[in-house]
Design goal:
The complex is a heterodimer. Chain A has twelve helices and twelve strands. By secondary structure, chain A is of the alpha/beta class. By secondary structure, chain B is α/β, with parallel strands linked by helices. Chain B is built from ten helices and seven strands. Chain B has one domain: Rossmann fold (3-Layer(aba) Sandwich), CATH 3.40.50. Classes of the chains: A alpha/beta, B alpha/beta. At the A-B interface, helix 3 and helix 5 of A face helix 5 and helix 6 of B.
Chain lengths: ~300, ~270
């Protein structure tokens, strides 16, 4: 996913001189071709995120479109104030691309695990937050970021994630994708947990339960219309995210459905990291399993809510 | 410490600041008074700007990184015609454009939203890099507070400006040696200050920050080096021009200023 993302940025830069690439301290050889062919627009600025956000904001104020790649936690936690005041308050076109969204850096512990990046960024007015589900979706997303107004945070997954998106579903920033329609249960997800939701939906079908799946790649601004439309058809709604349930996708969906004032009551559950620091190391998958961010847990939560 | 006698124009600037305070009865007065001469010289003699075209691409850029000193900036911008003078007297009112810290876009002529310290130099680096990318000759001036230089981000920016050899980026420091709580030297010492900047790769000049002629001369001569950014350390007095405010930490920010205090400030202003 990251490779695709950087390749697409390179292509944008080739055709548009406003595009600049920034890194803090990325792996050796990152976007070597970009550096070779467009050296004056390639910047590797060191472990100084607060300064980098300020400088790319200064460039964006002068019409440039800087793409900054770094580890997700350092782009969201470390320089939150610069992102909020220098970039977002002025609605500037900066693009923050966070490596290791979710539990990718599980073995490195809470200093590196981006379990609350979406919550942090959701609190910032003007911010757009996008968590693509796979590399193909990333390829459809990046070209749209060129003319899109305001700051964008893009959450990257580990890479090599199974392809679950389809070109038949047109991608538009801010528009949720209805992956499956259902009349009993609605599973709402973002990023790579879409795969878990689709698998869960198939198992539910085998159990005689008809479930829909809504992919919210753009967590902010959230597609309220799509959520209300799909939620209206079902009795049970389950959100799934590789993120804390405090302030993430589940919270965003809860805000939408609780204000929708449906005439019939709904049952609702959020699957994600509870309001704690991750306690285990291991791998992305083992951590997700430990906290129940799994296909099996989606199925059992959905069934128990549906049958209760 | 500067003992410069203020001329008529400098006193007029200060009188206008007090006129504003007379309406708002609140604000950062001493941090604004220490930068009057710096801002006056920049706006009257140095900056190539146009109030008719605030976003003119070739303009010089000025960032007030110590955003709390905005009273002086607002007076200078009104004098240059960026907005009507009457707006000054609505400072901090509900529907004014002039808040207690300056905001980009909202206020014509303001180049960056500042108020939280340690942001302006990095934004200025972005402006200076843009000039290089676009092969433009404009200069970027960033005025920082001395207390502001306690922020780590200032030194991240200093490393960066030096790395990129941004010779048309000029940091200016309002070195009044005071911060909100009291003396810089007692809260978190900056000395040896000029050596620090030199070690970070800057050309360092020091000047009396209330001496109009000296300021004019040093600003007119930037850049000082083809490959280095510059810093101009201006030795100033916090609250300069109103004796009972000078170096008086309890006045750093005031609200609910009384009629009696207003009278005392007007009377204290050097004649």
């Amino acid at each position: 996913m990251r490779k695709t993302c950087l390749e697409e940025i390179y292509k944008l830069a080739k055709k548009d001189k406003r595009v600049l690439f920034f890194g803090s301290d990325l792996g050796a050889g990152t976007l070597e071709q970009f550096k070779k062919e467009m050296p004056d627009r390639y910047f590797m600025e060191g472990i100084s995120e607060a300064n980098i956000i300020g400088m790319i904001s200064g460039l964006a104020m002068n019409g440039k479109i800087p793409y900054l790649n770094g580890i997700a936690v350092f782009l969201t936690r470390r320089c939150h104030e610069q992102v909020l005041l220098d970039a977002a308050m002025n609605n500037l076109k900066i693009r923050l691309i966070g490596n290791g969204g979710g539990f990718v850096y599980a073995p490195l512990g809470s200093t590196h695990i981006a379990f609350e990046d979406i919550a942090i960024m959701r609190a910032i007015p003007n911010m757009t937050i996008i968590a693509p589900c796979d590399a193909d979706e990333m390829r459809r997303l990046i070209p749209q970021t060129l003319e899109y107004n305001g700051p964008i945070y893009i959450r990257l997954a580990k890479g090599g994630d199974p392809i679950v998106s389809s070109p038949e579903n047109p991608f538009e920033i801010g528009k949720a994708i209805k992956m499956k329609e259902g009349k009993d249960i609605l599973i709402i997800t973002t990023g790579i947990t879409l795969k878990l939701a689709l698998d869960a939906s198939n198992i539910l079908k085998d159990n005689g339960i008809d479930s829909g799946v809504l992919h919210i790649h753009t967590v902010k601004p959230i597609d309220k219309e799509a959520i209300i439309e799909e939620a209206n058809k079902v009795k049970v709604i389950v959100t799934v995210e590789e993120h804390t349930i405090t302030g993430g996708l589940g919270s965003a969906v809860a805000e939408v459905i609780s204000c929708a004032n449906f005439s019939e009551s709904k049952r609702f559950s959020m699957i994600g990291l509870p309001d704690i620091f991750p306690e285990k190391y291991g791998s992305q998958n083992s951590l997700m399993e430990f906290y129940g961010i799994t296909t099996d847990n989606i199925v059992s939560k959905a069934i128990s809510l549906f049958k209760s | 410490m500067s003992s410069m006698k203020l001329d008529k124009i400098s006193i007029e600037y200060r009188k206008e600041i007090l006129n504003i305070i007379n309406y708002s009865r609140r604000g950062h007065i001493p941090p604004s008074l220490s930068i009057v001469e710096i801002i006056r010289v920049l706006y009257e003699d140095i900056l190539n700007i146009s109030s008719k075209n605030p976003f003119w691409e070739d303009r010089d850029r000025f960032i007030l990184s110590k955003g709390h000193g905005c009273l002086t900036l607002y007076v200078a911008l009104a004098k240059k015609g960026f907005f009507p003078k009457e707006e000054l007297y609505r400072f901090c009112k509900s529907d004014t454009i002039l808040g207690g810290h300056p905001e980009y876009i909202k206020i014509p002529g303001v180049e960056a939203s500042t108020g939280s310290l340690g942001h302006g130099l990095s934004i200025g680096i972005g402006f200076a890099l843009n000039a290089r990318l676009e092969k433009k000759n404009y200069r970027t001036f960033v005025l920082l507070g001395d207390g502001e230089c306690q922020e780590g981000s200032v030194w991240e920016a200093a490393l960066c400006a030096s790395k990129h050899k941004l010779n048309r980026l000029i940091a200016i420091i309002d070195y009044n040696k005071m911060q909100c709580y009291g003396k810089i030297s007692e809260v978190l010492e900056l000395e040896p200050f000029s050596e620090k900047w030199r070690d970070f790769g800057f050309v360092v000049k020091e000047v009396d920050g209330h001496d109009i002629k000296a300021l004019r001369k040093v600003f007119q001569n930037v850049p000082f080096d083809d490959k280095k950014p510059s810093v101009i350390i201006c030795h100033t007095v916090k609250g300069k021009g109103i004796p009972f405010l000078e170096n008086n930490a309890s006045w750093h920010h005031k609200s609910g200023i009384s009629d009696e205090e207003m009278k005392k400030m007007f009377e204290g202003l050097e004649k």
